Amino acid sequence: MSQGGAAARIAAKPQDRGWAWMVLLAAVLLQGLTLGFPSCIGIFFTDLQHEFQASNSETSWFPSIMVAVLHGGGPLCSILVKRFGCRFAVMLGGLLSGVGMVSSSFCKSISQLYLTAGLITGLGSCFSFQAGVTALGYYFVRWRTLANAIASTGVSLGFTLWPLLSQYLLDEMGWRNTFLIFGGILLNCCVSGAIMRPVQLASGSLLQSPKPGEEPERRAEEAQLSNGASSPHPELQQQTRRTACFQMLQKYLAFDIFCQNKGYQIYTIGVTWMMMGFALPHVYLVPYAIQNGVEERRAALLISVIGFINIFIRPLTGLLSGHKVFTGRRIYLFSLAVLLCGLSNFICVISAEFSVLIVYCVILSIAMSGIGALTFQVLMDVVEMDRFSSALGLFTILESITLLIGPPLTGLLVDITSDFHYVFYNSSFFLISAALFMGLSFCTLEKKNKLKEASKVPLDNPSRYQYNEMPTEPQSESQSPPAVVYITSI
């Protein structure tokens, strides 16, 4: 056995064994603390309205900003991870989240809450969650799918526990002291980040460190670009900067894929439209129940029911969608889940009794499990894996825009009409129309591709123009993990 082979075995040892399982435990905690946290904001909706004398629209900007930044901060997180590593990004995110919630306990106006709990805490949660998922991909190669499935249970646990804890603390201490305690709890993201030490590659170099020779070259380029006054070719320098900027945009925001890949185009537009109504029940369900006479503790229990059912249904949905029967047809399963989510909202319109709302939460949770389990699987089906990271960047940014504006616009409608039923009408409209658009568009696209194949018209690159399954070869243990990707979860 050569010395290089022995070094390779030692370097690859942390993957799929030993400390990797501690990292997995830390990832479960991270997802519960970050993605699960926004689920409890609806508990404080009424109290914040009374405290700041704010309308439904003004109050709903707070959770909207938090969720939008959490989903849309992916490109920034990716740059941070590439420059400083996963551990630093997770710990920085935990610090920002904690500082944001502690600061929000001292806010004197709702606009200050937008900055502290909305922007700062949302950005911190984004860094911690997405860098944690990236670190998990470094530590697991053979068992990566299983590790991601286990880590995603943290979201469901967060959905279950955060609302119960929030209601208890709110009753005992008020919202300001509750936010102060939340700041301390979110600092545990730093503990999870400390566990995620850098993995060593077979070459002996650290995963998050730059390649040999890359750093001096990058510094030389930066020095050359920053020396604008002494450059003998200012026009060439400006063109170089434009090229670098274009390459950066193409790397993190795949506009070329959006223009050329019809499947990706349809799916991105459909999900972006869907997000206008997807988050509305999470924001307004508890205020709606309280307004209709449901006790506050029981109203908070509704969100926990959604999270508890998610714990069991989401893994089952993932296993079902992986069956060979659904190969190449997962988009239709996804559209069906979105359609069910939209139709379930009419249950709330029929009655606001607690027993009826429990039935609504059960059906909504089943539909949400399908959406959460399939969102990124379908994206992998319609985009080549070598461009998945870029496609995901544009995808998350666009969906974060509609996540940001959806709840406030609906809140404005509720303020004008004084009727919470419009929340569920609105949500149903966006979800049902998105489901029909995606299902019918992909069906039409599939028929066109079959006609093209039948007429034997050659295409330059068929995978760019049709929806088909994109199977990827399993990565061997000797291969290094993929480049940094930023992933969000619904």
Describe the structure using short key phrases:
single chain, 490 residues, mainly alpha, globular, disordered N terminus
Could you please describe the fold and organization of this structure?
The chain has 490 residues and is mainly α. It contains 20 helices and no strands. The chain has helices spanning 3-12, 19-34, 45-52, 56-72, 74-84, 86-104, 110-139, 144-186, 188-195, 214-226, 234-252, 255-260, 262-278, 280-291, 296-321, 330-344, 346-350, 354-382, 388-417, 421-454. Mean pLDDT is 80; it is low at 1-12, 208-231, 462-467 and 469-490.
Give the low-pLDDT segments: 1-12, 208-231, 462-467, 469-490
In DSSP terms (H or I, runs of 4 or more residues), the helix count works out at: 20
* String of helices and strands: HHHHHHHHHHHHHHHHHHHH
Mean pLDDT: 80
- Major sheet, described briefly? none
- From the alpha carbons, calculate the radius of gyration and give it in angstroms: 24 Å
Kindly report how far apart the N and C termini lie: 48 Å
Could you say which structural class the secondary elements and strand pairing correspond to? Answer: mainly alpha
Shape category: globular
